[in-house]
């Protein structure tokens, strides 16, 4: 190369590099390169071209000397191993020299195109980036077949390298431009977002100092935002809240996870519940990228909480009465079932259905109906224990859930029954409603929740079924679901109605069991009630006395016994068989002892038979003395003064302690059969027996030994200072007629 040629080459290159550095237009730069090489080689048969590779295709970039039709025709050609010099060079990534296009097989497809454009040879160089990536091709066409010499090739390689610099530089610039564009866009978006954000965003440093504040609701700052940057959480929040916030800031930094917590801000408009989220931001400060910061988002969720509560209220409570609804009841019942299973405890579900609600609601309107339901719910609430749940599960249907009542099925049943009775009583009095005063009844079904209970729905179904039963049979407004209890209840109901029948048909009779002294003389007789049942024969008192007592018909039965006792005395008197000291013992029941006019009632009957109280012994049990001791003592005193003898029955089985016996107006004690039974087996029985006898002597009580069945018992008793004995050994309880005969024979 001549000196001036070299100088021009250098000048051109300097210009080119300057252009590239100045980031001038890429196609202009590439054109300049081509132009420059053509100028340098100064051969009219030679033309250069630069093609750029994009997605496996070559696109026209610069070829000022080539016919434009040719350029258009090959624009976008897909590269392959047989695709002309440029396509193949780009494909193989190495220079491809076609000295004669007409004969070179890689040109087969495009030879006509080139030859028509007057091009007969083509040497192509791939343009390779610094990272080894193919960016395009640098081609040199010749108008005659020609093979390049080594200086040609060197020259071309040099310029393709220059082209690669221009292209790479351009690509880097476009990438940067896109990045800047994207960043600007993201920044803009973020800015608008932050502007719209109702939340407050605070950036804190590790010490809890406010670094930046963004976002909408500045009232959540708990201070004036203007002067806050630089202050710390501890400067701004009250100690409690500040500690909590700092704790979360620390644990956010330590764990590098998102933390969430709530706290309450006391503001002028009342307490506000704030939801807080914290997350670590790294590289927040470009001047100190190592320093960690915490982004703290604060949101006012007071309204949300309130709404949540309201939704909960709507979901779980009946809006009219504010009582739990069916859903909540079922949830709680399920929990009680789970606990019952775990602790082996029982609970109960009480299903209450108002009897006349529909009538009132339909005739007086819903307003009055609602009023009634509200009053009912208030009364029900007053009848249950605090821990129990009362729910309204339908129009006029209420359910009480009794929790963890105890371990014994019968106890639970009776407790549930008591509550049910209280509920019925609470509904008994009139309801004062807008439409006037109304009375309503209810039917109640009880299902026990036992440790093997099914699910809540099942238990509710049982209670519901029991309630229907109560509605149906009308006799008892409370029904149990449990089969055994139900059977017991049924039996009781049957006995109740039978007792009434039996009283009407005079099927109750007093039997008499003699008491004799140690010499074998008849001193008294105990009147014992018997029920002459048409099918079951003689029914013993233990089967019906408790029922009669609960039903309130016990008094009629007591009257039968008293009448027949009087009658018997009268018959003995008539028969001249009534010895002066002979008495008849009558069993007094608990409810009689609560009647302060008992003496008058007794006297009234006695008078009608012209009999005096001196003919009678009244037997009471220790248990009856427990309640209302003072009143009972007064009553017994009066009875005693009238001439009745007072005897304590079943002595030793109750709660009495010997120590208070001296306070009691009592004349006699009957040592319970259980002591007599074990007299010759258990030494303690004899000990007790002896103590009772000696104490009685001291207190001037008579002692009667009850239930003497065997001769060896008699032998032991014989040596004790008892006044009398009663038992099968001497005589069983017998009918009036038999007893009259017995006395006559004595
Ligand atoms: P109680 O007052 O202790 O009556 C004695 C019970 O012992 C009677 O049973 C009697 O038949 C039974 N008995 C007597 N001697 C023997 C004996 O040697 N061996 C055994 N095994 N038993 C004996 P009953 O008649 O079945 O009466 C049961 C309970 O019913 C009575 O116990 C009493 O508490 C109550 N009762 C009976 N009649 C009346 C009544 O007219 N009014 C009330 N309120 N209760 C009554
Ligand atoms: Ca008795
Ligand atoms: Ca007894």
The end-to-end span amounts to 170 Å
Provide the β-strand percentage band.
15-25%
Tell me which CATH architecture of the largest domain applies here: Alpha-Beta Barrel
Low-confidence stretches are: none
What's the number of domains? 4
Query: What structural class do the secondary elements suggest?
Result: alpha+beta
Descriptive tags:
746 residues, alpha+beta, Beta-Lactamase, Alpha-Beta Plaits, 4 domains, nine-stranded mixed beta sheet, six-stranded antiparallel beta sheet, 27 strands, binds ligand C2E, binds calcium ion
Descriptive report:
The chain is of the alpha+beta class and 746 residues long. The chain has 4 domains: 172 residues, 2-Layer Sandwich (Beta-Lactamase); 111 residues, 2-Layer Sandwich (Beta-Lactamase); 163 residues, Alpha-Beta Plaits, CATH 3.30.70; 247 residues, Alpha-Beta Barrel (TIM Barrel). Helices cover 47% and strands 23% of the residues. Strands 19, 20, 21, 22, 23, 24, 25, 26 and 27 form a 9-stranded mixed beta sheet that branches. β1 and β2 form a beta hairpin. α15 crosses α16. The longest helix has 47 residues. Ligand C2E binds next to β20, α16, α17 and β24.
């Amino acid at each position: 190369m001549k000196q001036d040629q070299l100088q021009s080459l250098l000048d051109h290159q300097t210009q080119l590099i300057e252009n590239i550095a100045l980031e001038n237009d890429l196609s202009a730069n590439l054109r300049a390169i081509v132009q420059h090489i053509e100028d340098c080689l100064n051969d009219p048969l030679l033309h250069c071209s630069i093609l750029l590779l994009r997605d496996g295709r070559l696109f026209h970039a610069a070829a000022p000397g080539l016919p434009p039709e040719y350029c258009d025709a090959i624009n976008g050609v897909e590269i392959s191993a047989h695709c002309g010099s440029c396509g193949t060079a780009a494909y193989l990534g190495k220079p491809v020299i076609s000295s004669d296009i007409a004969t070179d097989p890689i040109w087969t497809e495009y030879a006509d195109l080139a030859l028509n454009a007057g091009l007969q040879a083509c040497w192509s160089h791939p343009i390779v980036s610094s990272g080894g990536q193919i960016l395009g091709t640098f081609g040199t066409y010749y108008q005659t077949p020609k093979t390049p010499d080594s200086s040609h090739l060197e020259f071309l390689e040099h310029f393709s390298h220059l082209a690669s610099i221009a292209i790479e530089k351009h690509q880097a610039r476009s990438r940067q431009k896109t990045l800047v564009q994207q960043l600007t866009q993201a920044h803009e978006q973020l800015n608008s977002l932050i502007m719209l954000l109702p939340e407050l965003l605070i950036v804190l440093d590790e010490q809890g100092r406010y670094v930046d504040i963004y976002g909408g609701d500045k009232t959540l700052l708990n201070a004036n935002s203007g002067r806050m940057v630089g202050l710390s959480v501890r400067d701004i929040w009250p100690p409690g809240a500040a500690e909590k916030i700092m704790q979360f800031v620390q644990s956010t930094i330590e764990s590098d996870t998102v933390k969430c917590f709530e706290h309450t801000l006391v503001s002028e408009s009342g307490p506000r519940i704030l939801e807080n989220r914290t997350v670590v931001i790294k590289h927040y400060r470009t001047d100190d990228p190592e320093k960690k910061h915490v982004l703290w988002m604060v949101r006012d969720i007071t309204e949300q909480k309130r709404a949540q509560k309201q939704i909960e209220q709507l979901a779980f409570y009946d809006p009219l009465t504010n009582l739990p609804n069916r859903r909540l009841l079922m949830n709680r019942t399920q929990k009680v079932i789970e606990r019952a299973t775990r602790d082996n405890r029982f609970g109960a579900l009480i299903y209450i259905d108002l009897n006349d609600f529909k009538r009132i609601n339909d005739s007086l309107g819903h307003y009055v109906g609602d009023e009634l339901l509200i009053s009912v719910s208030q009364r029900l609430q007053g009848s249950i224990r605090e821990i129990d749940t009362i729910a309204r599960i339908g129009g006029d249907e209420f359910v009480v859930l009794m929790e963890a009542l105890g371990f014994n099925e019968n106890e639970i049943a009776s407790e549930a029954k008591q509550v049910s009775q209280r509920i019925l009583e609470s509904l008994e009095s009139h309801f004062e409603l807008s439409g006037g005063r109304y009375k309503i009844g209810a039917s109640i079904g009880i299902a026990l929740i036992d440790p093997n209970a099914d699910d809540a729905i099942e238990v509710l179904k049982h209670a519901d079924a029991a309630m229907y039963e109560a509605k149906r049979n009308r006799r008892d407004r409370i029904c149990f679901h449990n089969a055994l209890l139900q059977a017991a209840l049924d039996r009781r109901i049957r006995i109740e109605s039978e007792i009434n029948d039996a009283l009407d048909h005079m099927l109750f009779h007093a039997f008499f069991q003699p008491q004799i002294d140690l010499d074998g003389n008849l001193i008294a007789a105990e009147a014992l009630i018997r029920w002459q049942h048409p099918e079951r024969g003689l029914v013993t008192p233990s089967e019906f006395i408790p029922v009669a007592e609960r039903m309130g018909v016990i008094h009629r039965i007591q009257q039968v016994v008293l009448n027949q006792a009087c009658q018997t005395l009268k018959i003995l008197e008539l028969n001249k068989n009534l010895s002066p000291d002979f008495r008849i013992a009558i069993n007094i029941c608990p409810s009689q002892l609560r009647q302060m006019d008992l003496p008058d009632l007794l006297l009234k009957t006695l008078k009608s038979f012209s009999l005096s109280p001196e003919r009678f012994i009244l037997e009471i049990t220790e248990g009856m003395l427990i309640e209302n001791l003072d009143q009972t003592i007064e009553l017994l005193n009066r009875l005693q003064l009238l001439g009745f003898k007072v005897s304590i029955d079943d002595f030793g089985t109750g709660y009495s302690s010997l120590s208070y016996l001296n306070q009691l107006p009592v004349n006699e004690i009957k040592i319970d059969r259980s002591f007599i039974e074990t007299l010759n087996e258990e030494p303690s029985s004899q000990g007790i027996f002896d103590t009772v006898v000696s104490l009685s002597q001291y207190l001037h009580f008579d002692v009667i030994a009850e239930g003497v069945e065997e001769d060896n018992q008699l032998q032991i008793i014989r040596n004790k200072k008892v006044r009398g004995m009663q038992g099968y050994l001497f005589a069983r309880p017998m009918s009036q007629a038999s007893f009259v005969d017995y006395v006559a024979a004595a």
